[in-house]
Predict the 3D structure of the following.
Amino acid sequence: MALWRIRATVDDRPGYLSVLTASLALRSVNILAVQVHTTEEGAVDDFLVDAPDTMSEQELHAAITRGRGRDAFVTRAEAQGLADQPTRALALAGRIVHDPEALGEALVALLDAAEVRWRPAGSVVLHGYDEQRMTLIDPAGGTYEVLRPAPAFTPAEYARAQALVEVSGSVLRRSAEQTTLLLPGGAELLVREATAEDLEGVRRLHGWSDGRLRRLLEPSNGLTLLAAYDDPAAGEERVVATATLRTEGDLGEVAVLVQDAWQRRGIGTALLRRLTAWAVRADLEAVVAHVAAANVAMLRTLRRLGATGPADRDGAMVTVTLPVGARRPASDETPATSG
């Protein structure tokens, strides 16, 4: 038996697909996988089949024609084609997560393309696809031009390619938002946005329930940053601080926690600066912080970042308001020292 890939268009009417499959079955062709692509011309059926070794390409074309298929494309297939399309797409997405620079190669594999070309920004005006060419915006800049003489590209394939591009874009955006914080004494911390995968690392810092930690790591409105270092002895990342900004309307609320051994080294200040920069991009009017009255270091940090007016005290807690963006006082333009 031999593997073949068949793509043919049939009328999108009840029973027409069964006519095509029956015609193939009469020639002892076993269908191993099928995908259906909806187009304006009809349903494009994509088959992976196992046919007798003696069967020729012309005989397969004849069986398709007898089954009311048209515009047929027939070619030999490899064993890797046995993987179904969702599995294949997920595997390629996983590859992009680990290596976003492999987007071009992943597009070739996803679309069984003959060639992919990268064009610089501005050289391609229109993005989309026709029968033999697909153009996609490269999240890192420029455009990918994917070529395949046959079969013709379909809307479903364009949507899959766009989804893979979005995965690459998300990975690149996350990488761009990671920064290295150099502390007095030479220690380095990685500052990045938290994700659900940080649950175990943050549990050591907070000791909260899993439900509360998940809400901290991925707030419904806002974001959480964390600072961590690579512990060579444990062979894993250690989280030493978190900072969360939750938003409601044009106001935000910030909360910072720094592990005792890492306090008074400027970590809280660095995290707060990044959160207030995000608040500016989100067009917030102000953010507030609820701080223990005895936490003089944090109160001093908030003042350096632009907190104005008298703090509102409620028992042992103090609420401080920090204007953001254009509403900050001019005094905040002076460089701040580490706190």
Q: What stands out?
A: The two ends are 73 Å apart (CA to CA). Confidence is low (pLDDT under 50) at residues 326-339. DSSP finds nine helices and 16 strands in the chain.
